[in-house]
Each structure stands twice: as C-alpha cells, then as structure tokens.
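Might you be able to review the protein record set out just below?
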Amino acid sequence: MKTLSEIQVEQRAWSLKNFGEHPSWHPLLGIQEELGELSDAYLGKKPDAMMDAVADLVIYLMDFCSCEDIELKTSGRVYSGQAKATPQISLLEMQVRCGNISHSYLKREQGIRGTSQQHKEAIQMNVEVLMDCLRVFCDDTDIHLEAATHVTWLHVSTRDWTKNKEDGS
C-alpha cells in the first residue's frame, strides 16, 4: 500500500496532466464539496459513501497542498483541546478548519490582514489540524484513512479527463 506522501506525488502529476496548472482555489472548492458529502453520508449512515468521501477529501487536500507548495501532514496534536471527540465534533471542526483555510486564502489574495507568509503559515496549520480531525473521525467510524485513500486513488488515477470530459474514462 502506498503512503499518503507517495500518492500525493502521483496525484500532482495526474492533476497537471488532466487539468494543467490551476489555482489552488479549485481543489479548495473540492475540499468543501467533499466535506458536504462526508457529512451527508455520516447523517445517512452510509459507511461506503463515508469512506469514499474521506478518500476524495484527502485527494483534494493533496492537490490543494501541491498547488500551495505546502506539505500534507498532521500536526500530531489533539485539536481544540478535545479530550474525547465524536464524529459530529470532528465534522464540525473540519468545517471550521476549511473555513479558516478559505479565510487565509482570501485575505492573502486581497493583500490584507497580514503578510503572504503569515497567511501561508495559517493555511498550513489549518490543513494539519483538518487532517488531525479527519484521522479522529476515521478512528471513530472505523475507516482506515490510508487504505481508503489508496483504494480510491487506484480508481481515480485511471481517469483521463482530457479524453472524456463526462466521466474521465
């Protein structure tokens, strides 16, 4: 099984082949979309859909981090001082982190409320905590994050959006 770092290298090459150089707000929108799908799957008690959304979320995070030239990693800290998280708390915290990433991205693009470097550091920190939350969510819902991502990547990586704009086949 490939590590997340190995998949990220492959994902970057695949993304460039399929979509060319693109702004990081493209995968940022994908992250938000997948958080919505993950929440919907959790509320609907659909474990297969949760696993797929988790993996897609990680793949979009990889693309975002590659576009931003930052590392996809966890902080290794317990987020928000939560001694015991629940899947619901993890989902809410992931949404907060995605909002924080969007905030820093937007303010950086507007050239306000800090330097470009400060915003980049805030984005990196929030990506790390989002990954921490995702790991907690996966642990609480019996999803193996790396395995789910690996399996989904094997499928996604075969898509060629340059040949077929409808389904990538």
In short: The radius of gyration is 16 Å.
